Automatic annotation (TrEMBL):
InterPro entries: Homeodomain-like_sf, Transposase_8, Transposase_8_domain. One of its GO terms (molecular function) is DNA binding. Transmembrane segments: none annotated. Gene3D superfamilies: Homeodomain-like. Belongs to the transposase 8 family. This is Transposase. GO terms for biological process: DNA transposition. It comes from the Bacteria.
Amino acid sequence: MRKSKYSEQQIVDALRRAESGVAVKDVCRELGVSAATFYQWRSKWRLRT
């Protein structure tokens, strides 16, 4: 399986920023990922928490 470009901590930090009120498109732009990737991360990490 391919290794992610982003660490788990970076993903969690991005999700927390979006929950705190930062627009998803802004978080995605800063990380250089698509909105679809962000929402995939969100669905994956919500299952674990």
